[in-house]
Design brief:
This protein is of the alpha+beta class.
Amino acid sequence: MGFNLKNKALPWVMVAAGIIGVSYGVSQFSIYAEKYTADQITGAFDALTAKYSFLDNHFGNVPHFYKALNQALIKENYSVLELLVLDEKVVVDDSVADYAGLSYPPLPSYIHEHHAQYGAHVAITVGGYPVVAYAQNDDGYMVMTLAQVSKNTVEALEQIIDGMTLLDNEDNKGRLHYRLTAVGFEVSLLSDTPHPL
């Protein structure tokens, strides 16, 4: 009886193949999860923009609508983001009934209020990331900003929005802006077209 290398190596080959298969499966799951999260983020931005546009149209496309909305409809220390997500909870008392009676577009369930605070505001999350703002920039574009976003999610967002992945530590061109911070990326999505200022 001699030493049979084939019989001794077969279990190790099977273990190695199993490890490679599991690693590949975990990698594919991670890619799918990041794309799913990126789809939720872009879907949330589209839904918030649709609801904001509905309110703008409902109130007659008044000049400086973003500022007027903040001053006339939203309680002090609350934001347009909180209005869009929390609805009449943040509306001034004399407008609650009117606002509650509107048939505005519903938001998807993955945009929700988190049990914690984020800074001075109610924590609103999408895909597990805090949404820190939904506001109009100086050029009139609506911008949704998220904090603490992972590199993989930024790459997936770039693929969805720009059709390519050119991840760097910072980018402020196009519809996806991001910059690396100490706790992950801060990411901003911009609307296709500006709203009147």
